[in-house]
Here is the input.
Amino acid sequence: MASAAAAAQCYYSCSSPATWALRQRGGGGGARVARLSARRSFSVSAAAGFDNENREYVIVGGGNAAGYAARTVVEHGMADGRLCIVSKEAFPPYERPALTKGYLFPPEKKPARLPGFHTCVGSGGQRQTAEWYKENGIEVLYEDPVVAFDGKTHTLKTSSGKILKYGSLIISTGCEASRLPAKIGGNLPGVHYIREVADADALVSSLGKAKKVVVIGGGYIGMEVAAAACGWNLDTTIIFPEDHIMPRLFTPSLAKKYEELYEQNGVKFIKGALIDKLEAGSDGRVSSAFLKDGSTVEADTVIVGIGAKPVVSPFEAVGVNSEVGGIEVDSLFRTSVPGIFAIGDVAAFPLKMYDRIARVEHVDHARKSAHHCVETLLTSQTKAYDYLPYFYSRVFEYEGSSRKVWWQFYGDNVGETVEVGNFDPKIATFWIGSDSRLKGVFLESGSSEEFSLLPQLAKSQPIVDKAKLKGASSVEDALDIARGSLQSAPSV
Here is the structure.
C-alpha cells in the first residue's frame, strides 16, 4: 500500500448533464496515485444545475456505516447544509444485525421494528430517525441508488436520473446477498435473501404461513434465521456443504455443541450437501429442494444465506482489490482517487495488527471505520486505523426460549486450540500460536466483565501456558489464567 502523498487542493466547476460521461468500468490493481492529505481540501461551486442542495460531503449508501459517519460529521458541526446521503433504501440508516435476529420473531414475541433500531442505538448512541437528519440539516435521498459516477466532473447519477455534485465522497455501499442462479430456482416465490428491511418483511410474511422451512447455508445468516424460525415452531432444516456449522470460525468440537442445541430445538441438519435445484409446486411457489445426491427436502419457505459480495459498482475505476474484493483504501480509508473514501463492508483496508489486506463484514467495523474516516476527512488526523477483528451472535432470545445464546470472538482463529467448559451455559476456546502467544479467544454466555477481557487478550497477545489452560477446571479458571498472562507478560 503506498504511503500518503503531499496535500493536494482541487477546485471543480459545474458541468452540464448533457456532457455526462459514465464511468462504470475500469481500474483495479494498478499503480496508486497521489492521495489527499488527512485534512479536507475540496470546495464545490454553489452554481445551479444539480439535484442535491448539500454538496460538500456526499455519502453513497444508507447502511450502518453511513449512519455512524453522519453522526461524526454532526459532532464536528460540519453537517448542516453540507452533508448529503444517497440511499437505495426507504429508511434512514439502521442497525442491520437486527434483521436476522429480533426482527424475525413472531408477532406475539415482541419482534424488533423501526424506528427502534435506527443507528446509533446499537452502540448506545442516539436514535437517528428521519427527523434527526432534518434537524441537523442533512439531505437524504431515499430509494434512489447511485448508478454511475464521473471522477473528472465530481458528479454522480442516480437511478431516477438525478445528477449530484460532490466535493468529498464517501463510498458506503456495503454488500449484497449472494444469490442462487435463477435457472435453478433462486428467484422463485418463497425463496428469500436478507439484506434490507423489505427482505425481512417478506420473510416474516412467509414465516407466518410456513410449515416447512429450509435454510441454505450454515454460516451467520443460516444459524440466526434458523434460530428465529424455531420461535415460530416450524419444521426447519439447514443444508450446507461443509462438515459442520460456522466453518470459518468454529472448531469441529465447538460446532458440535451448538448443533446439539439447535437439534434440541427441533432443527435438522443435512451436512456435506449441495443444492441441485429448487422446484416450484402447482401454485408457482417453491415446494422442494433437490440435492446433488438425488435426495429431496420439502419446503414452502427457503432462506438462502450463502454469503455476500461487496457492492463496488459503479465505482470500479476507483480501484478494486482483486484478492478480497471491495474498494481498496489505505489506513485512513482514502482510495487511490483524491477526495474519495470507502468505509464499512465495501472497504479493503490494511489490517494492521495482522499485516494483511482485509474486508470485514461486521457492524463493529462499520461503526469504527466510519468514525475513523470522517475524523480523517475533517481533521488533521493521520493515525492509522488499527482494527481488532470482532464477531458475535445472539440467538434464541425470543420470549419463551429455553436457552438464550450470546457469544463473542476477538482476534484471529489461527494456531492450536484449547477448549474449556461444557456449554452449561459457558464454553471458551483459545487459539494459541506456535510462539505460545494467544491469537484469538471465543466465549459463550460470559459476564460483562468476562466479555470485556477478550479484546484485551486478543490485542495484547500475551504468552500463555497451554498446559495450565488445558488443566483449567472451569471457564472462569481459564479466563483467570489468561488474565494472569496478560498482567505478567509483555505484549507484542
Summary: The longest strand covers residues 405-411. The chain has nine helices and 28 strands.
